[in-house]
TrEMBL record:
GO molecular function, one term: oxidoreductase activity
Species, as recorded: Terasakiispira papahanaumokuakeensis
Lineage: Bacteria, Pseudomonadati, Pseudomonadota, Gammaproteobacteria, Oceanospirillales
Residue ranges of every copy of the NADP-dependent oxidoreductase domain listed in the record: 15-313
SUPFAM superfamilies per record: NAD(P)-linked oxidoreductase (SSF51430)
Protein name: Alcohol dehydrogenase
Keyword Flavoprotein among record annotations: no
CDD domains linked to this entry: AKR_AKR9C1
Domain of life of the organism encoding this protein: Bacteria
Amino acid sequence: MQKQYLGQTDLQTAPLIFGGNVFGWTLNKQQSFDMLDAWLDAGFNAIDTADVYARWADGLGGGESETVLGEYFKTRRNRDQVMLTTKVGIEMGAHRKGLSKAYIIQAVEDSLRRLQTDYIDLYLSHTEDTQTPIEETLDAYHQLIEQGKVRYIGASNYSPEGLTQALQAAEQSHLPRYQVLQPFYNLYDREDFETQLAELCQRERLAVTPYFSLASGFLTGKYRRREDAQGQAREQFVENYFTDRGMRVLEALDQVAQAYQVTPASVALAWLMAQPVVSAPIVSARSSEQFKALVDAAHLTLDESALAQLTEASTY
């Protein structure tokens, strides 16, 4: 499968990145191993996780996804085949959050232990920390890069102002620079990224790896009414999509999917991959059917008419 460099790094990724929030949450250990095997066998290579996954779920405290991945790497002995991203910053418990140097140095050791590896390809600030000077955060990353524990750094959930400040601080203080932005962006959720961050990323040559690329499953078409999501793991994430615009988006996805003989999920991802500023969307699957939609998306090229139809239907 064709791979591309992430921004100005020497990291290479296939067109899609697997989102590891499902590992240890909606997929158990064996199911996770099977999904990871299928992902690599299909020609993909990149996996995204975070220390906090899946702390939001009942009975879980964070670290579950990294732990499953670590056990997978140990069992399969294939860590070198994976472009691995993890993140730091969101609360993991009392006094365990933020982007201070002391906490980052502590948190990376915890992640490396859970992941059973001695390096992280891409380490992301999971969210802004306005209580810590950005220079302190970047200095922590400088130390980790010097030690070989981290190769490159990036940011997720950053505002335009915070991202600009971080890029300027890196240049002025000769510190490592964020090379990747991981924003909330998909066919439905367009406005914030397109109006506030897209131009900045393009100008600064940042790689863009959107998360919630299928709007927590809404863009697959499996949730047509609020009742369809009741009792589902992602119910809380999709409740705001049942709008007139949401229904227009699903109708357009259905029409294009029928024309190309693929699923709405494949079409939604193909639209996202076609956006010039996007490097590789982050996606997840819990079943073989969902997995096939991801593989189909990676090989799907929409024509200008289809892209225009989807863009118009999702206009904000």
